[in-house]
Fold each of these.
Amino acid sequence: MNCWRSPDLSSTSTRTEMVFSFSLPVECKSCPRPRHGRHGSYMPSDYTKWKRSTAALIRSGWKLDPLDQPLTLSVDMVFSRPKRLQRKKDPDGRLPRMAKADTDNYLKSVMDAIETAGVVRNDSLFWNVSARQWYGRKEEKPYITILISTGVQHG
């Protein structure tokens, strides 16, 4: 499930904004703190594997050069619903997720994967960022929806 809405790149286009939208069938992983060992600092292997595999999913749909301009990023992270919220009396729709790990740590992992995939030159180009965490509907599989916009609105 890797869905893209590609920008209109025709030469007759007068658009100053491009929107890239895609969905990844993976559960988001929080960016951990680096570990320090005898040979220097490193990230835990489970995070490194997650970042590599997620970047490969993103790269599979990306056919352009890396973006090198101010960008807006919007991320919706849908997590599997825990068993304690699977009862009949619990609502069927999505529920806001307020978990132990901070939203900014999840967002950092998504931004790292986008940079590793070669979509952006550097994740510091994201100047306007929003993120939401949800528990999915009952029986809904986890996924991440990412929306990247170019163009800056002055105001």
Note: DSSP finds two helices and seven strands in the chain.
Amino acid sequence: MENLTPSTRPVEPPTPPLTRGPSRVSTNLTDELDRQGIQIADNQEVLSYLEKHSQLGVILPSICALARRLFGPESELILSVYQDPEIKDSHLSLVVRLPRYDENITELLDRVTEPYEAELCDASGYLLVTTDFRNPRAKNGV
């Protein structure tokens, strides 16, 4: 083991100051969700939420990809931050809109997060996959 004194240690360049603005991670995340046809209601609000709950941001693309596979290209998937009007609380919400609904919708909604339950339990923040039973606004979700 080499004994390095302060004068013989390699000098590391100073760390550049942190800057505000879109990070590479946020750009990559929004690009990935865009490729999957996920609409983001308010980009800045969602990214701000995910900055506070970064573990959720790591698994979010996989969850959204599964939602897209389960509900298909005709579905509309909208990611937003829900602000509770009565208490100071918010969570991430993935709203699914389909051209037709049947009695299996709640089972399908549950299947979106099932493979990720352990990761979701370990992550801070909360993701709700739900529907408002409306038809997609666009002709196609994708």
Note: Helices lie at 24-35, 43-52, 54-71, 105-113, 117-122.
Amino acid sequence: MNLANKLTIFRMILVPVMVVFAYLPIGGDVYTVPVPMLIMDLIFIIASITDKLDGYIARSRNQVTTFGKFLDPLADKILVLTAMVILVERGLLPAWIPVIVLAREFIVSGFRLVAVEKGGVVIAASVWGKLKTVTQMIAIIFAFVDIGGFFSFTYTNLTGGYLAINKSTIEQLPMIESENQQEIADLAKNITVKKQIDVSADTTSLENQIDFLVYHLYGLTYDEVLIVDPETPISREEYEAYKKE
């Protein structure tokens, strides 16, 4: 087995390693990005580099083999689809994207199998197929460290604690003092980290703390809170008790 094929197999071995880190209880974050996501992103980057490297080595050393033509695109599919499934589970990617990718791969693989059966020819990936893989890999690399999630900038109907509050936005609110800005930012960061680690995590108490703080800092009465957020889970008694603290 030549070096190019060994790199391809190494890329496939990295896939289960990446999956294992998705379920390890590793805490901490770097710039609000959970450490497990950074580790998986690094593994994915290394695997993506081997995709470019094995092809270059095979062509430059004249080591292109039928086994390599078959295994290289297969390794790419396994790597990309595994990463997409992890992102879907973390709520960072809508499910329809990997569904489309998977359907396309089944169709292309079907054509390849027919070609092998009819003429004994293994069809290597075309330049367009390689470009597709590269663009997918680049998008996935960014998706792993995107704390907002797919198209989060279009979320305009969120209220209360579900509103996407980040430090840069909070700093633009002139009525809130710097120490309160930091408190809100820290609460929002905790919510983001918890959701990144476990999409189903209960962050209701943290969301309510943000609501309490923001409403109180702007001097809203409870009746005004109901206008801003008619579905608030905060009761009048809870709000009045918080204002007295």
Note: Residues 35-60 form the longest helix (26 residues).
